Amino acid sequence: MKREYYSDSIANFLTTDRHAILGELVSNSEFAVENTQRDAWQFQIDSLKKLLVGQSGTIYLEYSIPRMGKRVDVLLLIGNAIFVVEFKVGDTQYWSGALNQVTDYALDLKNFHDASHDRFVVPILVSTKAPAVPVLIESTPRRDGLISTIKSNGSNFAAIIQDVHTFVDSAETGERTQIVSAEWEDGQYLPTPTIIEAAMALYNGHSVAEISRSDASGAELHRTTDAISTVIENAKSGHYKAICFVTGVPGAGKTLIGLNIATRHLDDESNTYSVFLSGNGPLVQILQEALARDKVAREKATGRRITKSAARSEVKTFIQNVHHYRDEYLKDSRAPADHVALFDEAQRAWDLQQTSKFMRQKKNQPNFNQSEPEFLISCIERHKDWGVIVCLVGGGQEINTGEAGIAEWAEALNRSFPDWHIHISDRLTDSEYGAGEVLSKLKSRRNVHYNSGLHLSVSMRSFRAENVSRLVKEVLDLDTINANRTLDSVREQYPIVLTRDLSKAKEWLRQQARGSERYGIVVSSQANRLRPLAIDVRMQPNPIHWFLADSGDVRSSYYLEDVATEFDIQGLELDWACVTWDADFRHADVLPLLKLEICQW
């Protein structure tokens, strides 16, 4: 599959008629091309025909970065370097947002395109009306072959290419052989998008194949998606209700599976309309806001206008807080609009005691006698024809009081829903899911199916983090010998430092981050004695501002003032984190555990 709208040798590009190149861009565009876009392409073509005279290599126009749902204006393979070029036609300054944008494109290639891993990648911002500025060719602090972003108005473009090659030829590390375009194009794209990036890409029509890895983890995503889709289609055609339980190792992509299924059925006129539900409040708020902002921006780019409130309303029908969904159908006895409900972190649904207590105290329902799983199943049961529930299950992750674990879902099915078809991951019997005993009671039921395709066994997490989970376990187990070995193996790709000086930690984060890579301070929720360092875990940040605002917003994680606890960040990602502990993380046999006692006055 071609990733670009146009590609050719630079020699052919220079001799091809400008209208033919423009026509190829327009014909390959996935969307209607507005006049502003057509004019921008024409300007770029004309400019590049002047700037690339005397150069040899390959040119790609509108090269896809599917993980980000974006396209690079121009990508050049010249000599032994990859040039990522973003044009800002008419801009009189080198705006920070544009600099971050082109840096992010270059980072994506460096990190996720295997043929670019060891190559020098050079991001260049061309602001056509900006003044010329001095050019310094240097590596970023990681020294992994990514060159610091270069600012140009185009007048010195040829000189920049020459200076880059001089720098690369003198570099001590990195691949310096000539790039063969055919070999580079055959490189695998192995992305690990953040959950926010994945949600935006899927919501905007990209397939999971475009934003997932092409290795074993990507193959598993397709297999599990197909298994769930088969359950949905069979329930629909057979006019029955079904539930399936999907399991997976940490980082395997369970949430991505749920979003993928939900985005396949966004048409509210279809009877396969679906909803993605999560009890993770910060995650839901952030995804809803990110999708709404992205929709407004995309509509604006095509000349259409939509208010953010309208965009939010549209998004909220697709991603909802499970507790809001529950409250809505507590008031409304009709069947939900959706036939398919996907529950993320289903093991965290409330048990009977917690649900009854909440209903009694908060909803004035003194006689409510259902657990949250039983009530949620009963909502889909209201459909006269068919319905499907997909439970996305994490093992050993019930972290709050009253979270029932997956066993309560099975108990509810046994108690109240004898006719439902049940599709179970064959790994749900593992001890970490705590459902073995109750699952044995399902054996006497008809229509219970165990399916290995409902388990995700391969983590999708970044290539830089493959052994970090093992390191954490070894540290917690006080296995110093193996922890040192593991640390040595990950240190180059996954820098880890230790300090007691918070100011040094903040400065280190700022130095490491490139482009719009997000960094922030993450603190144990029990760290109550860090207030002398201006860290107060009682002051909860607004998750939308903390995770989505840019580096110029004092409420964002970038400012390193507001901190997030494990409850604020579950299911979300930071590129660089300062993980901060109080006296709740220490060797118990070395220092006595202290109990904080409040004096009575």
TrEMBL record:
Q: Name one Pfam family in it.
A: SLFN-g3_helicase
Q: Which residues form the Schlafen group 3-like DNA/RNA helicase domain?
A: 241-588
Domain of life (superkingdom): Bacteria
Can you name this protein? Schlafen group 3-like DNA/RNA helicase domain-containing protein
* Phylogenetic lineage: Bacteria, Pseudomonadati, Planctomycetota, Planctomycetia, Pirellulales
InterPro entries of this UniProt entry? P-loop_NTPase, SLFN_3-like_DNA/RNA_helicase
